[in-house]
Structure formats: structure tokens, C-alpha cells
Write a structure and sequence with these properties.
Elements: E1 2-3, E2 22-29, H1 35-38, E3 49-50, E4 63-64, E5 77-85, E6 100-111, E7 114-117, E8 122-129, E9 136-144, E10 149-157, E11 162-165, E12 169-170, E13 180-190, E14 196-204
Antiparallel strand pairs: 1-3, 2-10, 4-14, 5-6, 6-13, 6-14, 7-13, 8-11, 8-12, 8-14, 9-10, 9-13
Amino acid sequence: MRRTTRIGRLTRALVAVSLGIGTVVATVGTGAVSASAAGSYTTCSARTNYQAFRQWGDTADYFLVPNGSFASGTGSWFGSNISTVAENEPWKVFPSTSNSLKITNYGWATSSSSCVMNNEDGLRFFYKSPGVSGSTLLVTVMVNGSTSSTQVETTLKGDSAGWKVSPILSIPKVGTATESRTVTVTFSARNTTASWQVDDVAIDPWKSL
């Protein structure tokens, strides 16, 4: 269902999925961050939202990060050993998309920055794991505020092959309650040369965690 306003649930439970997930939170820096990197605006621009994960019991709205559906190839992303392939996540939750990001041979991919407010604290996506024992995908969510930068790392196991929906990953809070922040997400293939795919990287524009 399409949404164009910031409407969502105030609280929700994490969707139970058998992934074997580990999460690490780290403060990367406490010095001043430049205005261009820190989200110097008091509010973020309007977004187009969708209830993309409704069929998994998550009725909150989400908006895509820049080129989060990879409709424009690898535009707005940078990294190593990455490409786009003509394979969408099978549920097609966002309209007019047909591609996904492929990460091969210990590659990594980082998104361009998205503006988020301090009450926007959840991120989800789809991924296709390789089904190779020991393979992992490290997901790093980096947030820059006006005076500090913080990141959260989550590891997804790739032993079971096929497309999956991610859990809700936390976007950590930095700065004051009224200032905007910028967030980037990095996907890194680890431990084996196995290939991963990622699609529909999206943020929940409402407090959820």
C-alpha cells in the first residue's frame, strides 16, 4: 500500500526470523563533524512511503534510501566487486523495480547518505544468501550527527540459500532530539568468496525500536 505521509506505529516487535544475527554498537568519533556530513538541517525533505514489509507482520511505512531498489544500476552506491543483476527480490514490494545489487569475492558496497530525524530509527532490506557454510554478510549502519558519529554492525549468516527479509536494524541516535542526521549503510561479504545479493534498502520514518 502506498503512503505519502509520515505515518507509522509507535512501537512494534521485531519479526522472528532464523538468521543467526550478531549486533555490535560502536562510537566512531566524538569530534565535530562537518556540516556537509552531519545533517545540518532541522528537518528532512518529504518522502514517498510504502508498507513494504506488511506481509511479514510489519505494518510500518518505509522509504527507500537513494537508489535503494537499484533501478539505476549502482548509481548512488560505491564499493568493490559490485554490480547489478536483473533479478528483483521475489515479493516485489516496491513498484517499478527489476534489479538487485550483487556483491562478489569479498566485495563491499556503501550507500550515499540519507537524511533522517532522531525518531527515525529502523532499517530493513532483502538479501539473497549464497547457501555456503561459513559465509557472512556484515551490515554496517553509520550515523553522523553534528558532534559525533556512531555505527551499528550486524552479521547475517549465509548457510541457507535464497531470498530473505532482514530483521529491523537499528539506526542509532546521535545529537539532539530536534536535529537531523545522515545515515549510510554498508554491505560487506565476509569469510568466503561466495556471492550475495541485496535489494530494496529502506528506512522507517517513525520511531519503532
